[in-house]
Specification:
heterodimer, A: 199 residues, alpha/beta, Rossmann fold, seven-stranded parallel β-sheet, two-stranded antiparallel sheet, B: 311 residues, 2 domains, three-stranded antiparallel β-sheet, 10 helices, 42% helix, 17% strand, disordered N terminus
C-alpha cells in the first residue's frame, strides 16, 4: 500500500504539474509532494498557481510541517526538502547539481523514510535531476513512474530517469493523474487520517 | 514562463555540493549488486543514534537532537567521501581518529550563509522593526547561529545606515569556534561581492556597497568600524543558558537543523531572553505556528517571519 507520492520536474513543469493536480479528486488518498526547480526568490507563486487548478489543499512547506493526505506539498525555493516519517524537514545545505531544491535529495529521503510505500514521478525537465533519486525509490521497492518523453516539453529529464530506472512505468502526461488514482488506496491510511495538519 | 533549472545566486563552484557525486557512488554501488538494497531503516537509525551518542560521550558535542533526515544525509556524504560503507564504520574511525571527528564536526555544524541573504527580510526589518527600535535608548541584539558572520555585518550596515548603530550592541554567537573566528576576521570571498551588492540594493541599501570593504588579494575585508559594537563568541544553543536580555533575537535557518523537541527548548530560551515586546526573527520557512510559543508572539511580518513577544 503506497503512502506518499513525490513528483520532480523542471523545465515545463508548471504546465505539467497543473495538468496532473487538475486530474486528482479532493478525496485523493495520498499526500503529493512536488519539487519544481525555480528561481530562489519566487515565494508562494507555484503554490498559488497549483491551487487554482485543484481542490486539494496546496501548501508551501514550512520546516517540520506534518504530512497528510488531501494535500499537495510544494518544496519552497532555495531549500532542500527532506521527507521524514510523517513530516518534512528543510535544509539550506549547498545546491546539488546547481539545484536547491534538488529532486534527488527529496526522492532519496522519501525512499529512506517510506521505502516501498513510496511512489516517485519524474516529469518534464531539461536536466538530469531526479534520475538518481528515482533509482533509490525503485531500489527500496517503491514504484517509479516517468512521464513519456514524447509528451514532455523537456525530454532530457524523463530520458535520464529511464536510463537510470529502465523498468520504470512510462505514462503520457494526460494519463498520469488517472494512473495515480488507480494505484492509490481507496481512502487515506489510518495513520494519516488521525494526524491532521496543525496549520 | 521561464523556469531556471539552476540557482543563479549560488552557481559558484565553491558552493556546489561535491558530495552530490558521493550520492552517485552510493547508488551505483547498489546498482552493481543488481538487486534491491538490503536496507534496514531501523538498523540505520540505531547506528546513527549510537554514533551521535559516541560523539557526545567521547567529544562532548551534542547532535543527538538534530533533525534526523538532515543528519543522516550529512553523515552519508562523509561516509562515501571516506570510501566507507556503513555508519558504524564511520563511528569506528571518528572515535579513534580525532582528525576524522574534526571533519564530521564541520560536516554537521557548517551552515550556508550570505550577506543580506533573503534581501526581502532586511527590507521588512528596515520598514517594520527599525521604527520600533528608534524608541529605545539602547538596543541589544542577539544573532544566534551567526556562522561565518556575513549576516552580522549585514545587520551592522543596516543599523549604521538607519542611524541606530551607535546605540546598538550585537552579540553574535555560534556553536563552532572555527566559524566564530572567521566571522571576527571579517574577510569574505571577493567573487561573491557582485551577488552581495545586488542583495544589498534589494534589501533597501542606499549607498555604494563597495564603501564597506576593501579588496585584498581574493578577499573583501570589511571595515573594522562595522565591528565596533559587535561581540563575537562561542555559544551552544543546545546546552548553554541565556546570557542577557535582548530587544531583538535573530536566529535564521538554524532551528531547521533541530528536531521538534529541541526546537521547543530553544524557543523557550529565546522567549525568556527577549524583553517584553522584543523582536524574534526566524528563517523564511521557519514558523512559530507549529510551536507552543505561537500565542506568545504577534506577527510583524508573516512572509518574513518577524514576530514580537506580547506575553
Amino acid at each position: 500500500m503506497y503512502e506518499i507520492v513525490v513528483i520532480g520536474t523542471s523545465w515545463g513543469g508548471l504546465n505539467a504539474l497543473s495538468r496532473v493536480v487538475a486530474g486528482l479528486p479532493a478525496t485523493f488518498a495520498l499526500p503529493l509532494v512536488v519539487v519544481q526547480h525555480r528561481s530562489p526568490d519566487t515565494v508562494g507563486f507555484l503554490a498559488e498557481l497549483l491551487q487554482s487548478h485543484t481542490s486539494l489543499s496546496v501548501v508551501e512547506v514550512d520546516d517540520k510541517h506534518p504530512i497528510a493526505a488531501g494535500h499537495v506539498y510544494v518544496a519552497p525555493a532555495n531549500y532542500h526538502l527532506l521527507i521524514e516519517q510523517g513530516f518534512f524537514s528543510l535544509t539550506t545545505d549547498a545546491p546539488v547539481r546547481y539545484s536547491r531544491p534538488s529532486i534527488d535529495v527529496t526522492f532519496v529521503s522519501a525512499a529512506d523514510a517510506y521505502g516501498r510505500r513510496t511512489v516517485g514521478v519524474v516529469l518534464t525537465g531539461a536536466n538530469e535531476d531526479g534520475a538518481l533519486g528515482l533509482k533509490r525509490i525503485a531500489d527500496r521497492g517503491g514504484y517509479a513512474i516517468v512521464q513519456d518523453p514524447e509528451t514532455a516539453e523537456g525530454a532530457a529529464m524523463p530520458r535520464a530517469a529511464l536510463r537510470s530506472v529502465p523498468k520504470a512505468r512510462v505514462v503520457p502526461l494526460d494519463r498520469i493523474a488517472s494512473h495515480l488514482i488507480a494505484i492509490a488506496p481507496p481512502r487515506p491510511p489510518a495513520e494519516h487520517r488521525v494526524r491532521a495538519p496543525l496549520a | 514562463m521561464r523556469v531556471p533549472a539552476t540557482d543563479p545566486s549560488t552557481t559558484g563552484r565553491r558552493q556546489e555540493d561535491r558530495a552530490g557525486v558521493a550520492l552517485g557512488t552510493r547508488l551505483s554501488t547498489s546498482a552493481s549488486a543488481g538487486a534491491p538494497l538490503s536496507y534496514d531503516p531501523d538498523l540505520e537509525r540505531l547506528e546513527i543514534e549510537l554514533l551521535l551518542e559516541a560523539i557526545y560521550r567521547h567529544y562532548g558535542f551534542d547532535f543527538r537532537s538534530y533533525a534526523y533526515a538532515s543528519i543522516r544525509r550529512r553523515l552519508w556524504r562523509r561516509i562515501e567521501t571516506e570510501g566507507l560503507t556503513t555508519v558504524s564504520s564511520l563511528q569506528d574511525r571518528l572515535l579513534h581518529e580525532p582528525a576524522m571527528m574534526e571533519k564530521v564536526l564541520l560536516d554537521l555544524s557548517i551552515n550556508v550563509t550570505a550577506m543580506f541573504r533573503d534581501p526581502t527580510f532586511y527590507l521588512a526589518f528596515r520598514q517594520r522593526v527599525v521604527p520600533l527600535l528608534r524608541t529605545y535608548p539602547f538596543i541589544r541584539i542577539w544573532h544566534a547561529g551567526c556562522s561565518t558572520g556575513e549576516e552580522v555585518y549585514s545587520m551592522a550596515i543596516l543599523l549604521e545606515e538607519e542611524g541606530l548603530y551607535e546605540r546598538a550592541r550585537i552579540y553574535a554567537t555560534d556553536i563552532n569556534e572555527v566559524v566564530v573566528h572567521r566571522a571576527r576576521a571579517g574577510i569574505f570571498p571577493l567573487e561573491r561581492m557582485q551577488e552581495y551588492t545586488e542583495n544589498y540594493i534589494r534589501a533597501g541599501g542606499a549607498r555604494s556597497f563597495s564603501e564597506y570593504y576593501v579588496a585584498k588579494y581574493d578577499g573583501a575585508l570589511f571595515s573594522p568600524a562595522l565591528q565596533r559594537n559587535v561581540v563575537f563568541s562561542q555559544h551552544n544553543l543546545v546546552t548553554d543558558r541565556s546570557f542577557a536580555e535582548f530587544n531583538v533575537i535573530l536566529c535564521r535557518n538554524v532551528l531547521i537543523y533541530f528536531d521538534r523537541e529541541l526546537q521547543t527548548r530553544v524557543h523557550g530560551l529565546f522567549h525568556e531572553s527577549l524583553v517584553h515586546l522584543g523582536i524574534l526573527c526566524l528563517g523564511a520557512k521557519e514558523t512559530l505556528r507549529l510551536s507552543k510559543y505561537e500565542s506568545s508572539y504577534e506577527e510583524l511580518s508573516r512572509d518574513e517571519k518577524i514576530y514580537r513577544k506580547v506575553r
